[in-house]
Write a structure and sequence with these properties.
Helices cover 54% and strands 13% of the residues. The protein has helices at 2-7, 18-22, 26-37, 43-52, 70-83, 102-110, 131-146, 162-168, 184-191, 193-196, 210-221, 241-253, 255-258, 260-285, 288-299, 305-318; strands at residues 58-64, 88-94, 120-126, 152-157, 173-178, 199-202, 229-232. β2 (88-94), α6 (102-110) and β3 form a beta-alpha-beta unit. α3 crosses α4 (43-52), α5 (70-83) packs across α12 (241-253) and α14 packs across α16. The longest helix is centred in the C-terminal third of the chain and has 26 residues, at 260-285. Bound molecules: guanosine-5'-triphosphate (GTP) and magnesium ion (MG).
Length: 320
């Protein structure tokens, strides 16, 4: 079947499912994402097509501490978007999981109510032990999803570390989810969420401490250079989710997030991602003997590891 399709396709750099991917067809989108995630033979063709695609989805980044209710909220938000007739792609990024950890499994269960819905595409991305690579992969996959003819792309990441901030940078609207607890305002300021958030969502509004948390975060937010809005939700019951959807749409439409700066960040990230992909390709194609020679020079003490790595990269880029 695949061979037959390939045979009718004169240009191996443009697989036959590319057009279906751009039209938002779920199976084709799955293939496209897998190609990019694994740096497959059609990755470059997919990325080129994604870049040339005229339409681009609204990209919503959702981050926050473990257990804050992000996945539950994403499930409810997706339901709200679907009820508005919008199609969605969800990317769940889990930097802590070496492959497919418990958190991702939990996410899949929470998204299962959308399982039979062709208007919802879900993909989980786990760290393969290298956070920088994960951020880069997430950026490319989100790009591919955003070009696939779907209306909204939701990217869920855990935590607010550097790689999550990098992932958040690719979103049009950045949402930080916060669950009620003690000392929230101090923690929030420390975690730097006020800098990256367009919206702060106090989830688990059904819990008794929620009002105090909301007040603390509002107060902390008021000191930020560009104070984020603070909303409350109860993701389990869905309370507050329509208002969240409205706020996200309004932010995406507002010119503050359409401004050149955010688009420039996204393009910069794409450029860096491409450079990294290119360098890795060249490294993979490099003759193993080059590395062996450098290892020998490390053994004699002539080079340290950093210098040898730089020499290796230079050799790869020079095409030795
Ligand atoms: N009371 C209450 N519990 C909630 C609410 N939303 C989520 N939870 C619960 O909080 C727990 C964590 O929810 P998740 O959606 O897995 O949270 P998460 O932030 O995605 O967690 P990680 O992916 O592990 O970081 C689950 O037991 C949820 O049922 C809510 O609105 N109210
Ligand atoms: Mg989760």
């Amino acid at each position: 079947m695949l061979a037959a399709l390939m045979a009718t396709n004169p240009n191996p750099s443009a697989p036959p499912w590319l057009a279906a991917f751009l039209g938002g067809e779920r199976a084709a989108l799955a293939r496209a994402v897998t190609e990019v995630e694994n740096d497959g033979p059609f990755a470059a063709a997919v990325l080129a097509a994604a870049r040339a695609a005229p339409a681009r989805a609204m990209v919503v980044g959702i981050t926050g501490a473990p257990g804050a209710g992000k996945s539950t909220l994403v499930g409810a938000y997706v339901g709200e978007l679907r009820s508005r007739g919008l199609t969605v792609a969800v990317l769940a990024v889990d930097p802590s999981s070496p492959l497919t950890g418990g958190a991702l499994l939990g996410d899949r269960i929470r998204m299962s109510r959308h399982a039979g819905d062709a208007g919802v595409f879900v993909r989980s991305l786990a760290s393969r032990g290298h956070l920088g690579g994960l951020a880069r992969n997430a950026a490319l996959v989100a790009d591919v999803m955003a070009s696939s003819g779907r209306d909204v792309v939701v990217v869920e990441t855990v935590g607010v570390g550097q790689s999550e901030i990098e992932i958040a940078e690719l979103a049009d609207v950045r949402i930080v989810v916060w669950a009620p607890g003690a000392g929230d305002d101090v923690q929030a300021a420390k975690a730097g969420i006020l800098e990256i958030a367009d919206l702060i969502v106090v989830n688990k509004a059904d819990l008794p401490q929620a009002a105090a948390t909301e007040a603390a975060l509002r107060s902390a937010a008021s000191y930020a250079a560009a104070p984020p809005r603070v909303l409350t939700t109860a993701a389990l019951s869905g309370r507050g989710v329509p208002a969240l959807a409205d706020a996200a749409a309004a932010l995406a439409a507002g010119h503050d997030v359409q401004s050149g700066e955010r688009a420039r960040q996204r393009r910069r990230r794409r450029l860096l991602g491409e450079a990294e992909r290119f360098a890795r390709m060249r490294l993979a194609a490099l003759d193993g003997a080059v590395a062996d020679r450098l290892l020998a020079r490390i053994d004699t003490g002539e080079l340290d590891l950093d210098a040898a790595a730089q020499a290796l990269l230079q050799a790869a880029l020079a095409g030795d």
